[in-house]
Amino acid sequence: MEIILHDNRIVIPKDLQMRVIDLAHEGHQGIVRTKQLLREKVYFPGIDKLVEQTCKSCIPCLASTPKNVFEPLQMSEIPNNVWENLSMDFLWTISEWILRYGNN
């Protein structure tokens, strides 16, 4: 088998492109880092698009990516009496609470 180079990078045949991307993405470091790793050593047309598709459909990456979706702020009505309206902020997730306090 002959190795073909493009600007000192190995040209990857189509049937091996997904395997190479999967290997580069094994550490689940995101789209940018995966592209950087690949661009240093390999080349094939459409590499960026394929890396983006792979990373955006990666279940471990999707599960660990924080979702920055916030509820819009809403004005609350001024209560007429004491203890008529009670609010509370939860600072921990349930799993953090269970780890800290157990099932007591």
Automatic annotation (TrEMBL):
InterPro entries: Integrase_H2C2, Retrovirus_Pol_polyprotein
Pfam families linked: Integrase_H2C2
Domain of life of the native organism: Eukaryota
Residues annotated as domain Integrase zinc-binding: 12-65
Name by which UniProt lists this protein: Integrase zinc-binding domain-containing protein
Organism of provenance: Mytilus galloprovincialis (Mediterranean mussel)
